[in-house]
């Protein structure tokens, strides 16, 4: 059973694996599910939760990006209208992502009673501030590349809830799979939305939900600091000691040090 955080109109289900979060928003106007994951029993719990709370509202499924852990449960909601970015829909390596899902299930002898093909979006987000409105519920989307090429964030009004995808985690450092400047641009965008009062709570892809202003500020500043210091470390190796001290503050520092090495290799390709 997934860990669960409940609020009046939204709940966050956290998988046992990588503290991966699925958010379910329930209003009189719609139900929104984001990135359902990981294990079949966890996804079934989410599906039952949705069914118990659904009356006649339309169901939407937001996929924040195409990493396989964020799309592996999409097939459990065949009735949902899928929302994703243009980049998500245009990926040329969809078969590789499907293969990652199959390899994960085969490795752990997992059987799923739903399809694990690559999701086909019904609503494609092309630009910042694209809006979905149902009654009094408004969802505004923002392109969020950097971690991946096809990232997408969303702010749900009037709940003040930001679905950030794989940004602003308290258990992970920034993971730069696409490009560091894009990552920094996304952080700037999330920072501006925060300063403009567009959201008061952020749900990261992994880790704890943040609602205290000082915690949200800390995550924004820490992410910005880490990327800048990692860039500097390519020329000045003495900076590494400060980065390692930052990583050591995290509970799961061993895998994060591997992430840091991968980030440095990515930054070298950008030079």
UniProtKB/TrEMBL annotation:
Signal peptide: none annotated. It holds the Pfam family Lactamase_B. SUPFAM superfamilies: Metallo-hydrolase/oxidoreductase. Residues 19-206 form the Metallo-beta-lactamase domain. InterPro entries: Metallo-B-lactamas, NDM-1-like, RibonucZ/Hydroxyglut_hydro. This is Metallo-beta-lactamase domain-containing protein. It comes from Marinococcus halophilus.
């Amino acid at each position: 059973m997934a860990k669960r955080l409940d609020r009046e109109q939204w709940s966050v289900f956290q998988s046992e694996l990588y503290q991966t979060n699925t958010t379910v928003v329930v209003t009189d106007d719609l139900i929104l599910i984001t990135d359902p994951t990981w294990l079949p029993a966890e996804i079934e719990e989410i599906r039952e939760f949705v069914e118990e709370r659904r009356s006649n509202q339309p169901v939407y499924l937001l996929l924040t990006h195409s990493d396989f852990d964020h799309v592996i449960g999409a097939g459990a909601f065949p009735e949902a209208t899928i929302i994703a970015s243009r980049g998500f829909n245009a990926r040329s390596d969809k078969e590789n992502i499907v293969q990652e899902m199959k390899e994960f299930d085969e490795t752990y002898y997992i059987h799923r009673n739903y399809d694990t093909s690559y999701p086909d979006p019904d609503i494609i987000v092309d630009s910042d501030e694209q809006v979905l409105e149902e009654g009094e519920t408004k969802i505004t989307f923002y392109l969020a590349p950097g971690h991946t090429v096809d990232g997408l964030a969303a702010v749900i009004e009037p709940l003040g809830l930001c679905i950030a995808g794989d940004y602003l985690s308290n258990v992970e450092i920034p993971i730069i799979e696409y490009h560091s400047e894009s990552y920094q641009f996304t952080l700037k965008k999330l920072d501006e939305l925060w300063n403009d009062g567009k959201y008061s709570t952020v749900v990261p892809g992994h880790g704890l939900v943040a609602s205290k202003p000082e915690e949200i500020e800390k995550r924004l500043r820490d992410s910005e600091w880490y990327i800048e210091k990692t860039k500097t470390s390519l020329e000045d190796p003495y900076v590494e000691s400060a980065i390692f001290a930052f990583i050591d503050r995290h509970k799961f520092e061993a895998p994060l040090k591997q992430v840091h090495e991968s980030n440095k290799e990515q930054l070298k390709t950008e030079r």
